[in-house]
Design a protein that fits this description.
The chain is mainly α. It has helices spanning 5-35, 42-81, 87-110, 121-142, 148-172, 174-180, 190-217, 220-242, 251-274.
Length: 275
């Protein structure tokens, strides 16, 4: 764990920084919409912030992980071979990593500001501040001894983060969510639409909450619950394909992966607690 905590600390700090950065762009865009007299209600504002956290956040996550890995390695070398170091060095490294990552995204890839929140000086300062706090959080993670539960919790939160996109689709844009499963929502009867929306939303929201409860409590029963649900979905998917002849689909592969992931985490907790 002494070595493993460093890469997982980078991954955790990057996810934490994504959580701080994406609302900057969301709120900036909402303010602009309001300035041009576009109606912006509380519900639509929440929807924009959550969707940006998941969709924009996933794209940013990979960029920030790379930037943090380089910046914190340099900070670690400076700490090791000089008298400089400490939490503020890592915090500064995080801020520099975010500044450089966004700068390179604009100059080398998109030739425009991809992040709406970075188009003003205040927005830039908020992004750098998010990187600063990300670096500070990284220092906090590496400055304490970690055990296997640190990795379990990170993988649990990452799993929930992936599920969040599906949950948001079913809550806010059920027609798009249904299309991903092969349904044209508006060709169904009202009763069928209701059943589809309520059942699928409940299905994904429940597993999202179960995995978060598992991350909080480290109770393997929550992980087994999620695994059973997705393994069951995969099993009855195959039953539908080969017995009821509903036609082949490969969604069962995703269902097996979504079942195996929490199962492995649950088994890890079970065997570790039994020792």
């Amino acid at each position: 764990m002494k070595i493993a905590k460093y890469p997982f600390a980078v991954l955790s700090a990057a996810l934490f920084t994504v959580m701080l950065i994406t609302p900057i762009t969301s709120i900036s865009n909402l303010i602009w919409l309001s300035s041009v007299d576009m109606p912006v209600g509380i519900g639509s504002a929440i929807e924009v912030i959550l969707f940006d956290f998941q969709r924009l956040g996933i794209a940013l996550y990979g960029v920030i992980v790379i930037g943090f890995a380089i910046a914190f390695t340099v900070a670690g070398l400076i700490t090791r071979f000089t008298s400089f170091g400490g939490k503020y060095l890592y915090a500064l490294a995080g801020a520099v990593a975010i500044w450089l990552a966004i700068f390179l995204m604009v100059e080398l890839l998109f030739q425009t500001e991809l992040l709406g929140g970075n188009r003003s000086l205040l927005g830039k300062l908020f992004h750098w501040l998010a990187g600063f706090f990300g670096g500070y959080f990284y220092y906090h993670l590496i400055s304490h001894d970690k055990n296997y539960t640190f990795i379990v919790r990170y993988l649990s939160v990452l799993y929930a983060y992936i599920l969040l996109g599906i949950v948001l689709n079913w809550v806010f844009t059920p027609s798009d969510a249904a299309m991903a499963f092969g349904f044209d929502l508006y060709e169904l009867s009202n009763e069928a639409q209701n059943a589809l929306i309520r059942d699928f939303t409940s299905f994904f929201l429940a597993t999202f909450l179960f995995i978060l409860l598992g991350a909080i409590t480290l109770n393997y029963a929550w992980y087994y619950s999620v695994a059973i649900i997705y393994f069951g979905a995969a099993l009855f998917n195959l039953v539908a394909i080969y017995i009821h002849e509903t036609g082949y689909n490969n969604i069962y592969i995703s269902e097996i992966i979504l079942g195996a992931w929490p199962m492995l985490l649950g088994l890890t907790l079970y065997y570790k607690t039994k020792k």
